[in-house]
């Protein structure tokens, strides 16, 4: 039985591209966190977990001495997908939004930034997510570092 060489090459290329895609997604999975302490001593923290099963959990924490209440925790959860290093977030209003998880991440997108494997220089590139857009106004342009 003869095999078509073009068919074999095409199949190999598809398998290689799928492996590359999965390895990139594997790099994204994990915990992200950033925090800022103001000159007044106030603290703001963002924590995000991207799970292997395509779900995420987010926590925003702030401790502002001049607000009542001074401590605030806001949560969100939902699902995520990745295409071309851009992560899209979705929150199902019936399943993901409740009394505790009030943030709706639908329409939020973040770029996954990491040092390319081809970059063999000493350049340090911190692995992070940079939010490009979000209906949550304070999330747009936020960067969260992978820990």
Automatic annotation (TrEMBL):
Protein name per the record: Lipocalin-like domain-containing protein
Organism: Flavobacterium helocola
